[in-house]
Write a structure and sequence with these properties.
The chain is mainly α. It has 10 helices and no strands.
């Protein structure tokens, strides 16, 4: 088995198990058994469980950030008009679809991993994401803030997490929620159709009048 193949098998198994069971509940031995590799292979290629968790995230975040930056660059070259919140959110989700489709596996696993990163207090992961992908994050935040210059920074912070929470819950639970919709209303929506409904809700949330005013 070649080294690239070994790495991919480990990452595939780790991503699936972390998303299903959580980070704390998934042992390296379970990952190696699922990937059909020995424990030494994980230690050799990644060094630690934390490093493996970070590598799983990089698998999603590196192409996503590249795609988001590329789409923002194209938009800025096409027009000198400022990017408003609604358009920024559309570009964000479009980039998310493009990058995850290239990887394979869809949005749900990534959203589950992202939600667990906060629910299970993976502080090392937050620092890793800021260090590795902070430039892209800051660029996107600056675009949002430029369109909402009067919003209090603390209110803006919380609105971002409301946005993240709505996105993670909806997309990580897409299949069961869609099944409920089918049972209650007799219709299904594709995940892209669901996102088209989610985008204006998030934009409205971000642009809502400051409650303290």
């Amino acid at each position: 088995m070649s080294q690239p193949d070994t790495i991919e098998r480990i990452l595939d198994a780790a991503a699936a198990l972390f998303a299903e069971r959580g980070y704390s509940e998934t042992s390296l031995r379970t990952i190696t058994t699922t990937a059909n590799v020995n424990l030494a292979a994980v230690n050799y290629h990644f060094g630690s469980k934390k490093a493996l968790i970070q590598a799983v995230f990089s698998r999603y975040l590196a192409p996503f950030c590249e795609c988001l930056n590329s789409n923002l660059d194209a938009r800025e070259k096409a027009s000198d008009q400022a990017i408003h919140v609604d358009e920024a959110i559309q570009i964000l989700f479009s980039s998310l679809f493009q990058s995850t489709e290239a990887i394979g596996g869809g949005l749900e696993p990534f959203m589950r991993l992202l939600g667990l990163a906060y629910a299970q207090s993976q502080e090392h992961l937050r620092h890793f994401i800021i260090e590795e992908y902070g430039d892209t994050y800051r660029r996107f935040m600056e675009i949002l803030q430029a369109d909402m210059p009067d919003v209090d920074p603390v209110a803006f912070y919380w609105r971002l997490y409301f946005m993240l929470g709505a996105t993670v819950f909806t997309l990580s639970s897409y299949n069961p929620i869609n099944n409920i919709s089918k049972a209650d209303f007799g219709e299904e929506r594709s995940i892209k159709e669901v996102v088209s409904l989610l985008e204006p809700s998030i934009s409205t949330l971000l642009r809502a009048d400051d409650a303290e005013r």
